[in-house]
Amino acid sequence: MTGLYWAIVWIVGGGIVAAIIVATLVITVGNRKAKLGRAAEPPQAPPAPEQPQLAAPEPSDGQAAASTPAEPSSLDVPEAPASRLTRLRRKLAASDNAFARGLLSLLSADKLSEETW
User: Fold this and answer.
1) pLDDT over 90 for what percent of the chain?
2) In 3-state terms, the chain is what percent helix, strand and coil (to 5)?
């Protein structure tokens, strides 16, 4: 009976050790493949917006070309400050960050005192 008992203990113990080794190998190999997959594929950058090429007028018949600045495109014109502040306040209000809440309270005040500054 003691021989059968020890045989069962060794079989169960060996099975547990084998299961731990297999689980460790599966996790390690999975992590390596994930790291290699991320390293092989560089992150995709969003495509840069295409800016229209403005053709400069060519001088004709010996006339000197007047240096006229090209009209700015819609990308060069910034938004109005009021709309930028409104959008910033909206984003800060949606944030759960303590720093964002403090900044929102500063921006929401009508006037900043010396103490607040």
Assistant:
1) 15
2) 55, 0, 45
Give the Cα separation of 53 and 65 in Å (integer).
Answer: 19
Arithmetic mean of pLDDT, 80-99: 84
Instruction: Tell me the C-alpha distance between 17 and 19, whole Å.
Output: 5
Q: Which of 27-41, 82-96, 99-113: highest mean pLDDT?
A: 82-96
* 56 phi-psi bin (left φ>0, alpha ψ -120 to 50, beta other): beta
Place of tokens 């400050």: 81
Using an 8 Å Cβ cutoff, are 92 and 107 in contact?
yes
Token duo for residue 63: 């006339």
> Is the distance from CB of 89 to CB of 107 less than 8 angstroms?
yes
Q: How many Cα atoms are found within 13 Å in the side-chain-facing hemisphere of 19?
A: 6
Q: Is the distance from CB of 65 to CB of 57 less than 8 angstroms?
A: yes
Token pair listed for 37 = 């997959």
Cα separation values, 17 from 28, 50, 72, 101, Å: 17, 60, 71, 53
